[in-house]
């Protein structure tokens, strides 16, 4: 079965996961790059060992697992650290994601990745969907849902390229600043257009 791959991206707090869930509800298979990162940096994996060698035990929790919040506070404070972490993770995530895309049981597959463009994964996609949200909405989500402090939230938002940079690559832009119903209407219309194409 020939796959139709949607690369789903957007900056932190824009609501990519909400859009991914809507696409899954419409019948697509969703592969979440962030969930793959969790899996691939589990204790004892090659990525875990590489992260430990690069950043030391300060990024571990009491059980010896990677403490994502501690690691985040280091890499989002220094672009050089972020690049080093990405150099460890991007290759292993790319290999595993390709396996999962091939094995997906549906024709339409969604690859959800915050670094889709930066990791050079656009070429593999049939379409690039960029989820956007107003900065005040991003901040509200990060301090509410993710329970980051306002300073942590701002640091993470500012560590990323402007949303406009991602929008330049978009086949579809989903504005997720408003109600869920409004977002769902946009997602359903864009999904229906894919189904009509085939």
Task: For this entry, give a set of tags.
five-stranded parallel sheet, single chain, 198 residues, alpha/beta, 52% helix
| First-to-last CA distance | 13 Å
The helical percent reads 40-55%
Could you state the oligomeric state of the chains shown? Answer: single chain
| Widest sheet: strand ordering | 2-3-1-4-5
Number of DSSP helices?
9
Query: How many β strands by DSSP?
Result: 5
List segments where confidence is low: pLDDT < 50 over at least 5 consecutive residues. none
Structural class: alpha/beta
Report the average pLDDT across residues: 93
Instruction: Kindly estimate the percentage of residues that lie in beta strands according to DSSP.
Output: 5-15%
Radius of gyration: 17 Å
Would you list the SSEs in sequence order as H and E?
A: EHEHHHHEEHHHEH
Query: Biggest sheet, in brief?
Result: 5 strands, parallel
Shape: globular
Task: Describe what this molecule looks like in 3D.
The protein is α/β, with parallel strands linked by helices. It is 52% helix and 13% strand. The protein contains nine helices and five strands. It has helices spanning 16-25, 33-40, 46-55, 68-75, 79-103, 135-144, 150-158, 163-167, 180-197, and strands spanning 4-9, 29-32, 108-112, 127-132, 172-175. It has a five-stranded parallel beta sheet with strand order 2-3-1-4-5, with helices on both faces. The mean pLDDT is 93.
